[in-house]
Amino acid sequence: MYFLKKGVVYDLAVILAGVKNCLGAKWKRIAESDIRYLINSVLSLYKENKNEGFISKLRDFLEEEMDLKSLQISKLYGLEIEEKKIKLVSKFPVDNVADKQIRNFKNPHLVNATFQLRKILNELIQEYGPIDEIQAELSANIKLNKFQRYLYKLDQKRREGLRKNYIELLGELAENITPMNLTKYELWEECKQTCPYTGAHIPISELFTDAVQIVYIQPWKFSLNDSHWNKALCLKSFSENVLECSPYEYFNTHNTEEWDVVVKRAARLFSNTKSFPSSYRKFKRFVKKHNHRDPLKHQLMDSNTLSRNLKTYLSQGVAKVGISPGQSTLMFIENRRLHQIFTPAVYENPQLDFRYHALLAYINSNRSKEYIELLASENKYHPSTNRVMFPEPYKGFQDDVEYHIHSVLVSHKKVNKLISSRKHKTKKGDQQFENLCLSVRGSLHKETILGKRTSPEDQQEAYHIRKNLDQIKTKKQVFKIVDPEIRGVVLEAIEEAGGFNGDSVPYKAFFSKDKDGYTLPKVFLPNKKGDQVPVKNVRIRETLSGVVKLKENINQYVNLRNNHHVLIYLNQDQEYCEQVVSFWEAIRRVRFDEPVFQLPEDGVEFVTSLQINDLFLLDLNETEFNFKHESKSFIAKHLYRVQKLSSKFYEFRLVHHNDMSTTESPHYIRINNFGHRKTGWLTHNPIKVWMNAVGKLSIKDETKEFKKPIKSYS
């Protein structure tokens, strides 16, 4: 912490701590000026020899300048890189040793992303030659664990709900609905309508005026943190005092005796409430004592452990690798006026368009120290009078960004493997046993087990399922109850509760609660002795399609869950037909060494197959498409992925579009028939394409899938 507080980056702080460890008791007798000389000398050595030779130069410095012996130098720690010239590999290795290196990251999201990144980088090297430089950033989601991501999603939903309420309230107050006013109102509610710096009450009549301002808790100049957790309200008369210092720094410099009062007030104002369940996090930031991080160094080099591990891995194939935290990327979008590339909804929820990540990557690749310095000098809540226009990295930057973003072809992961196999070896005494373990890569069927029965009333066959009476919510479900006597007493209970509410069963019609919270049944059926037996479960009759028998000699059936693919073919009359193959059937074919894709008996000519995330070009009149003659921006408007599949119900969505709530063209297309109607196959003319890791499209011969050898698991 000693060197970190002096503004030294983490890696060098570790090395300097090792030097301090070498000196031992002598360190306490060193003057402050000599310590500063030591720090500057090590930093200079690192800058001059960071690519190679730094360790040897550091050893020479410690022996000559500090009069340290080899035994003392051995106490250094943090020097994990061996002293040898790093020879870059021509391609990132793909073998068991390299795979183990990636899996050692321990973070599942980062491991999967790195495997995909390795594939892309190797194809880029093969296509275009060696890579000179990589500029990257790790998503905040990767740095969080599963529980933290869950809390983050809950917090996002909470804030979205509050934001909708604030928009309505601002409308009622006849105030302009701007991001500034929405943020002010949110902070006003959070800090309980009180200025945390002065303790003064903030009336609603002054909230949206210049008398009340938004300030950064940890100054923008040093943090570049624009998150909600770094913002608070402050009276304008006091705001100038905390523009370039934290609350702790100001009060302990100018008004020491007031600091304890400020802390107690902040603890009360930023206490957790129902609307703001994480406000205590802001309180901890408000009272934070030390924040001496250099924003320029931090924004250009991420000190996170995962980022450093990834940088080490990438450095074996690329000479210059920089991984930034990405904290200020959004501010570059605002300053470079890149808000018109996507619709406003995308900037509020980036998950609606996959190309948004390409925009972040494009901005990150043009990041430099000069731009960070200029950004640090521009506080958007307190703009300077002589504000300088934010320069473009080069002439035509904005046009280039817009063109390339709209030319991005997004690929989606497609699961081709149906069965995973693993050999498990065990040893008992002198004997060694080997077991082959198989597992399917998906859900074969729904969990409910069905029984095939004949109704005693109408002698019709149907599938029966046992359900808790509390799960019966509609009139339709009530009349599906198999036993007529039980159905009768259930209807009587509903009548006693006031009858159906439209098509819904009235609340607490079948069960009630006593004062101790115990459940009391209301539906009874007499047994042979006349005793009233409570009815808690009933059998429901269901007419289902796509049901298969689970076991040969047992009356157990299951309802299939997923379809593996749909095969489109022409029959003898040259009519388009389909064959829907379930995941269950695909697994059966693999288990019995049959081809997964099979032409049916009435099939004459194979047309194509559809699987989830398959890519198709739609709404093109050409029967044959030449990718060389068309721009990627044109192709991107016609490139769709298969989203859902069922019988004569094929759903396609643009590859970059991820707003599942819209079903409007051109973002979404549905095919329900093989004709020339609005939702016809021939109308949209699907052409199946394949995309490699670097975004190149091609058309392949699908008939090879019929001849593809199947791995035997028998």
What does this entry show, briefly?
The protein has five domains: 10-73, no CATH class; 96-143 and 295-405, no CATH class; 178-286, no CATH class; 445-542, no CATH class; 562-707, no CATH class.
Tell me about this structure:
This protein is α+β, with helices and mostly antiparallel strands and 714 residues long. The protein folds into 5 domains: 10-73, no CATH class; 96-143 and 295-405, no CATH class; 178-286, no CATH class; 445-542, no CATH class; 562-707, no CATH class. It is built from 28 helices and 24 strands. It has a 6-stranded antiparallel sheet, with no helix packed on it. A 5-stranded antiparallel sheet has the order 13-8-7-15-14, with no helix packed on it. A 3-stranded antiparallel sheet has the order 17-16-18. A hairpin with a 2-residue loop joins strand 20 and strand 21 (649-654). The longest helix is centred in the first third of the chain and has 27 residues, at 146-172. The radius of gyration is 34 Å and the shape is globular. The two termini are 61 Å apart. Residues 78-85 have low confidence and may be disordered.
